[in-house]
Amino acid sequence: MNNLYLPHLATIEDIYEEAPDVRSFRLVFKDERLRDTFDFKAGQFALYSAFGLGESTFCIASPPTRKGYVQCTFRRTGRVTGGLAEMSIGDVIGFRGPYGNHFPVDDWKGRNMVFIAGGIGLPPVRSLIWNVLDRREDFGNITIVYGARTAADLVYKNELKHWAGMGDVRVVETVDPGGETPDWKGKIGFVPTVLEEAAPSSKDAVAVTCGPPIMIKFVINALGKLGFADGSIYTTLENRMKCGIGKCGRCNVGDIYICKEGPVYTAAEVKRMYNDF
Amino acid sequence: MADKFLKRENLGRLIDSVRNGGARFVAPAIDARQAVYRAISGADEVTWDYILPRNSFKDYLFPQTEVVAEYSIGEGGVEIRGRELSPKDTVVFGSRPCEAASLASLRSVFTWDSVDEFYTAREDKTTVVTVACTNGDEACFCTTVGLSPESVAGSDVMLRETADGDFSVTAITGRGRGFLSAHSAAFEDSGSGSAQKPLFVPEKIEGVDISRIKERLARKEHYDDPVWAGLTRKCIGCGACTFVCPTCHCFDIIDEGTAFEGERRKNWDACQFDSFTLHASGHNPRDAQFKRWRNRFMCKFNFYPNKFNSRGCVGCGRCIRVCPVRLDITEVMEEMSR
To answer: Domains of chain A (ranges plus CATH)?
Structure first.
């Protein structure tokens, strides 16, 4: 019997503390064959389980260009993420996926890339950033605008430094007003405003954004002001999901099932959706 | 033309024949003074005095709770085993045409894109024996959604009651023909010649137009129409409508057990609950009851027809009968037909 709900087992090979209550797992499948054959595309998601507590949905935060492992990043908020947060290196979790559509990276060859993320919205974009960096010659200028509530809440702090130091990536970091520390060197302001000030060129560019729903809405507006066409703006919407495969009936925005037709959409598609996310 | 006849007093013979063949016989029986579908063992348990059982027979195809996998965590590490389903042959006797029509809807959800065999394996083993309606109430509205008390969609065998209380029997599908020949000893080749009892045909609700509802729902502007909040303000979000609805399919996936062993289950869930779409961040796309009600209505008259190419509402009226605040879906249908 083909059981859609049966997860793979994956061992936690490493754990990274990203921010208060936010951590990443580097996961390796127990099934050795699957380690070699497992394939996914940037933007896809999976269901991760702490046995006895249940399953939660997060994106795959590692790029498809890095084989042999997958990384996920999550914030401790409820039962399942609380259980996952208490796990140690060597523990085994469940993994179901990859599910959903993906960023059309191949269609973007030769374009300039602008990535805009807020808070825990960076992980899905991280998969894409590394995917693009691993194929650097295929893309033009790269700009990353990233913000969080406070300086402590920024995830992937080391990678942000690494990207900023690469020389050919422009990184703009910001924190919400009041979230700065005395030694904060970045911007202070909300992501959409800071994005407008940073004013990346829309010429031959694709913008990708992920963050809280309200941020996504304002970022799309800001990108519009910068001259980005709705068809060149991509976002990933992550509604609550249980099955990940279009059966359980909760991630829909109107008649669009985020888990099947999404989670990746253009701003043009988002604007056609019911106001329900 | 009827294929066979069933004498009412021979129901016991049919039940025995089905059960002796190893199958389960599900029929309306009285439980807490109401008719419900139940697995039964003898004719004396079956009630004939019902309009529709309180529950839908989806309970037997898509159970309220079911194990999909089992985990154990011990010295040898973590183990996960998928539940292998080998469903029993099941005969649902005494279905109504409205409810039988909902099988195609459930199937459309559980088989689009990927196939959920926990549903299909059960449905593939189910024979639906429908009795055309000679009784009904003011909650019945099958004719308003394009069905009738003698619709055959989803039924394998149709029974029509005769004036003397027996039934003319017609096989609708190949499975139905197989059922009649497998249990031929329970059926007669000819009837008493008694006329068929008149059917109960609910009056089509004036002012409801399904195609107009579809058109209106397809236009995005209706979303912000204050009519939604006005019509559905009294909803208390109990979810009863979803549990008795034969096409409601939403579920949750949860673990039950300890840190050492337990089960992963699929449990019914309801889009009417406030935590159904609640994000981890606290954001909730459907943060008011009217939005949840609007979603359910959209599911019936927009998602099901457009996305799954099947019907979302069969007009059985269960949601009307069971609603504690008398929120009548046909009133909303009427408003949305304007």
So the answer is: 8-99 (2.40.30.10), 105-236 (3.40.50.80)
